[in-house]
Design a protein that fits this description.
The structure is a homodimer of 354-residue chains. The first copy, chain A, is built from 13 helices and twelve strands. With 354 residues, chain A is an alpha/beta fold. Chain A has three domains: 44 residues, 434 Repressor (Amino-terminal Domain), CATH 1.10.260; 121 residues, Rossmann fold (3-Layer(aba) Sandwich); 157 residues, 3-Layer(aba) Sandwich (Rossmann fold), CATH 3.40.50. In chain A, α10 crosses α11. The N and C termini of chain A lie far apart (70 Å). At the A-B interface, α4, α5, β2, α10 and α11 of A face α4, α5, β2, α10 and α11 of B. The first copy, chain A, binds a DNA duplex (16 and 16 nucleotides) through α2 and α4.
Chain lengths: 354, 354
DNA sequence: CTGAAAGCGCTTACAG
DNA sequence: CTGAAAGCGCTTACAG
């Protein structure tokens, strides 16, 4: 292994000078710089990050703490991760996905070892023990998501309010007046405090009321099967519905296939608009789904930037909320004129009319 | 920060003794042990991993190198990662997902910094520049996947041969004689040397020949749309087909929805058997797909164990190949008696018979 | 079984 | 602008 000592010797300078140059922490004359850089090149020197970390107390490693066992790592998560990693790399940090349980025990363990400078927290619960651990240990962190009490926490999150408002507005403008929200299943103890579900449902109830729409919310867990069952119930219990908002990705796929199976034409008879989906998932369906696109790339980057600013002692960024944006597809259309009593009808049959 | 020095002082021993105890590297009397352990507990001591790494030249960090930009991080990858991380934790290593491009440049950069003890390589190409980098730098590593030349490389991989043999055998035993493999698209330059595709297709040609079956292979990239198009072509060009093997996950979803859309009953008229899929993806369809289940959990664990054995200087594990296993669902059945010329037929109509 | 001391490869006041 | 030296918090021969 070639060390800074070797470089310094070959360049005829002290290791301090090499270090100053490398970190750009003190001015160095052009001549010295040239000699040192040549020596580094000749020797193929690479600075040892572990030694640097010990001396400077900064590892330049950011952990994206992910509760791998509790939450499936889906397409959306992959987006957050990828964009966060890119943002970190630009600032000369390593961002890695670190699997830790969401009870805070493993996270405390990890932080105690001094391996990471900061943490980006995903899948934040409304009252998250990991946040307590991060505070207690004085670790810089940023949330992607939000806890209930937010004072002084740097965080970025989806702007659920705007997302729901835009989605409802879009459907309303098309002429829909009978909407249903297929929400998350807040009765599930694992999710009763899961921010995205709570916030979306709250926003929907408020905004539907503002629009003077009847408020129909159906709980539904995030699986294709559950989505299909929700479609069944919906057709039974709310036959006048013309548009469906679906909170969860896999549930949305199920709602669509459920409706199709029941012979309902989408979007001819019913429009379906998922509220938080990535294009990869939308593309699982053909024709492709109209969706509100999860702002994963933006949030991953903003969250990481917010953390790095803390680490660098820069002024903190204000909390950022980013809405999902309408991403056009083929599953939302204007409602048809009131349908004939015959109902049903086989798929495709009326496509020309819609 | 409480250091080993603090613990030693409080326990009235030297820091060497604390270290010996902590690492279980030299015997310590029960009395001493008790004093030190009490001191550690009282002070809430946690060993600094960075200092330890510098002194011992081992960081205990394993990087799962993942080409995030080139490959989508899907459900299967998540499985590998989760099980690998668990295996590492058991052996007191950290396994983290480290995004690096698959050309070897970023990997070389990373290895030069001395932050990781070893690497688990995913999405291995048949001729992988990252393997060269790992060899040149003398980094211990294990492959999940295989390069063409394998001498001396510790690796684990899917047993494509057994997987295909079992899949074909299963269909054959049910009575199927007209099979088609919807393969990967090896014409795509990004994948022409992608091991799983090459190996699966090779195995299929060989094994179908052994069974005396007509050999029909259709290239198809891994998207739902491509799968649907493949279904269209297949119905046109090979109308006598009774069973379809599909290599890729998303293509498989497309094949099924494509067939359904064309009015073909699955499995009444056509059985569909994906060769490498995880149950999460199978559950996106309802009824759930019959699949050959990717052995992600096994491979993640075996790959990590193989690497850790190297790191610990234990005897290397022999390369391991693990087949995907049949995972029952509702999309494979015996072929029907030769179908009437009328063809088509609406879905569900004949279910009672199949 | 235990300790004193060197050393891992850097950074960073401090001095000039 | 550059250098000598202390120090980051551990591990590990070496000696006893």
């Amino acid at each position: 292994m070639v060390t800074m000592r070797d470089v310094a010797d070959r360049a005829g300078v002290s290791i301090a000078t090499v270090s100053f140059l490398l970190n750009d922490t003190k001015p160095v004359t052009a001549a010295t710089r040239a000699r040192v850089e040549q020596a580094m090149a000749e020797l193929g020197y690479r600075r040892n990050a572990v030694a640097r970390a010990l001396a400077s107390r900064r590892t330049h490693i950011i952990a994206m703490a992910y509760p791998a066992l509790e939450h499936r790592f889906g397409m959306s998560t992959a987006e957050f991760f990828t964009s966060a990693a890119e943002a970190a790399r630009k600032e000369a940090y390593h961002l890695v996905l670190w699997p830790v349980g969401n009870d805070g025990v493993e996270l405390r363990e990890l932080l105690g070892q001094g391996l990471v400078d900061g943490v980006v927290l995903m899948e934040v619960q409304l009252d998250d023990p990991r946040v307590d651990v991060l505070r207690e240990t004085g670790t810089p962190f940023a949330l992607i998501g939000r806890t209930t009490e937010l004072e002084g926490l740097s965080h970025v999150d989806i702007d659920f309010d705007t997302t729901v408002r835009d989605a409802v507005g879009h459907l309303y403008d098309l002429g829909h007046r009978e909407l249903v929200l297929v929400s998350g299943d807040l009765a599930d103890p694992r999710f009763h405090a899961y921010g995205p579900w709570v916030r979306t449902e709250d926003a929907y109830r408020r905004i539907a009321a503002e629009y003077g729409l009847p408020i129909v919310v159906m709980p539904c867990s995030d699986t294709t099967q559950a989505g299909q069952e929700a479609a069944d119930r919906l057709i039974q219990e709310h036959p006048k519905t013309t548009a469906i908002l679906v909170l969860n990705e896999y549930a949305a796929l199920g709602v669509i296939s459920g409706l199709t199976r029941l012979g309902r034409d989408v979007p001819g008879e019913l429009s379906v608009l998922p509220l938080l989906m990535v294009p990869e998932t939308a593309a699982l369906s053909n024709p492709e789904l109209t969706i509100m696109r999860t702002p994963g790339p933006e949030l991953g980057q903003l969250g990481t930037d917010a953390l790095i600013r803390q680490l660098e002692g820069a002024d903190p960024l204000p909390p950022q909320l980013v809405p999902a944006k309408l991403y056009p597809g083929a599953t939302v259309a204007a409602p048809r004129a009131p349908r004939s009593k015959g109902g049903g009808g086989r798929r495709g049959e009326r496509k020309a009319r819609s």
